[in-house]
Structures are given as structure tokens and as C-alpha cells.
Design a protein that fits this description.
Elements lengths: L3 H89 L1
Length: about 90
């Protein structure tokens, strides 16, 4: 049977081992947190790059669409109105 002194010695050993184990866990957890943080930052950076690229592509599509509308729809109408104005000015003058 264990004496009170033996029990205290065992308790001290386990307590000290727990502290060492806790320190090792804290170090490992700290490393893990840094790895997760770095991975998240990497994913966010990659996502931002993809979104920026998509926004530039969409901007280019919008500009192309606007220039097509202006070139194919608006400019011919303006030319038509100008020619009609010239015709009317010639008739009135």
C-alpha cells in the first residue's frame, strides 16, 4: 500500500508531466494557428486575385457592349438626323 508521501510524490510527478505536456500542446497549437492563419490568408489572396481578374473581364465586356451599341445604334441615328437636317436646311434656304 502507498503511503501519503508516495501518493504526494506521484501527484507531483503527474502534475509536472501535465505541465510539460501542456507546454508542448501550447507550442503545437500555436504552430497550428499560424499555419491555419497563413493558409486562410493565402486563400483570401487567391480569391481576391480571381475576383479582380473577373471584374476586369466583366468591365471589358461592358465597355465592348456599350461601344457596340453606340457604334451600331446611336451613331447611325445621329448620321440619319444630320442628313435630314441638311436636307431640311437646303429646302428652307
Amino acid at each position: 500500500m502507498l503511503s501519503k508521501k508516495d501518493i504526494q510524490v506521484l501527484r507531483d510527478v503527474f502534475t509536472e508531466n501535465n505541465r510539460e505536456w501542456d507546454k508542448r500542446l501550447d507550442i503545437r497549437f500555436s504552430d497550428f494557428k499560424h499555419e491555419v492563419r497563413d493558409e486562410i490568408r493565402s486563400c483570401i489572396s487567391a480569391s481576391e486575385s480571381r475576383m479582380t481578374k473577373m471584374m476586369h473581364e466583366i468591365k471589358d465586356e461592358i465597355l465592348e457592349g456599350v461601344t457596340d451599341i453606340v457604334g451600331n445604334e446611336i451613331v447611325p441615328q445621329i448620321d440619319n438626323h444630320e442628313s435630314r437636317l441638311v436636307f431640311l436646311e437646303q429646302r428652307v434656304a
